[in-house]
Automatic annotation (TrEMBL):
Protein name: LytTR family DNA-binding domain-containing protein
Domain of life (superkingdom): Bacteria
All copies of domain Response regulatory, residue ranges: 2-113
Keyword Phosphoprotein (UniProt): yes
Residues with PTM 4-aspartylphosphate: 53
Pfam families on file: LytTR, Response_reg
InterPro entries assigned to the protein according to its UniProt record, in alphabetical order: CheY-like_superfamily (IPR011006), LytR-like (IPR046947), LytTR_DNA-bd_dom (IPR007492), Sig_transdc_resp-reg_receiver (IPR001789)
One GO molecular-function entry: DNA binding
Organism: Massilia pinisoli
Residue ranges of every copy of the HTH LytTR-type domain listed in the record: 143-246
Keywords: DNA-binding, Phosphoprotein
Length: 246
């Protein structure tokens, strides 16, 4: 079993490395000190398993999974127990709470071996894990978008609005547009409901970007943004935006 260790604390990596040395079928293929290194290493080394810290600089553990995908397996390793522990118990390969014993690590490796024996379930399980964790997480503060080999990081407070476009969502910020393969409902759940509102089936708007609300025809309305963009508001969305902007 080829594994990668991802943790921003050198001591934590050293402890895990020492514990893994007692398992002859485990080969440590690499170590990473931040999320960007982890995404690159996962793509290049294609490990069987990643031991992944959650709170790290640059990218956190959930963002690493989002960018690297579910082709590999993950065991989350963290010093904090508030990260959707119940969801991890149901969906994750495992969740190691620091400090953990070698016996506890052996249990985690056993879970991974069971999953490797049934690989068809891995992708669905990781998607469920991330969805459940994010549902219990604080609203996201940034959006990550792959742009070839680069990763574009967009702070959410700079987003004017989001538009659904087939299987993608388009983020409009700073006069530019970025596309990301994501469902509108999933994004809506990740954003702060006090700052972003789904005013239409195809649009989510940053309330702070709205300059005014204008009528459009009989019983219709649109949001005119400070950028000049005009966003249609559905009949069900109008009372919500009106109440939040009072």
């Amino acid at each position: 079993m080829r594994v990668i260790i991802v943790d921003d604390e050198p001591l934590a990596r050293a402890v895990l490395r020492e514990h893994l040395g007692f398992f002859p079928d485990v080969e440590i293929s690499g170590e990473c000190a931040n999320g960007f290194q982890a995404v690159k290493a996962i793509a290049e080394l294609a490990p069987d398993l990643v031991f992944l810290d959650i709170q790290m600089p640059k990218l956190d553990g959930f963002e690493v999974v989002e960018l690297a995908g579910a082709k590999t397996h993950y065991v989350f390793v963290t010093a904090y127990d508030q990260f959707a522990l119940r969801a991890f118990d149901v969906h994750a390969l495992d969740y190691l709470l620091k400090p953990f014993t070698r016996e506890r690590l052996a249990q985690a490796l056993a879970h991974v071996r069971e999953r490797v024996a049934a690989p068809a379930q891995g992708g669905d399980t990781m998607r469920a894990l991330v969805a459940d964790a994010q549902a219990r997480h604080q609203p996201i503060e940034r959006v990550l978008i792959r742009d070839g080999a680069r990763v574009q990081v967009i702070p959410v407070d700079r987003i004017d609005y989001v538009e659904a476009q087939d299987d993608y969502v388009a983020f409009f910020a700073d006069g530019r547009q970025w596309l990301k393969n994501q469902r509108m409902a999933e994004l809506e759940n990740q954003l702060d409901p006090q700052a972003f509102l789904r005013v239409h089936r195809s649009y989510i708007v940053n309330l702070s970007a709205i300059a005014r609300i204008e009528p459009t025809g009989k019983d219709g309305h649109c949001a005119v943004l400070k950028s000049g963009a005009r966003i249609p508001i559905s009949r069900s969305g109008y009372p919500k935006v009106r109440d939040l902007m009072r």
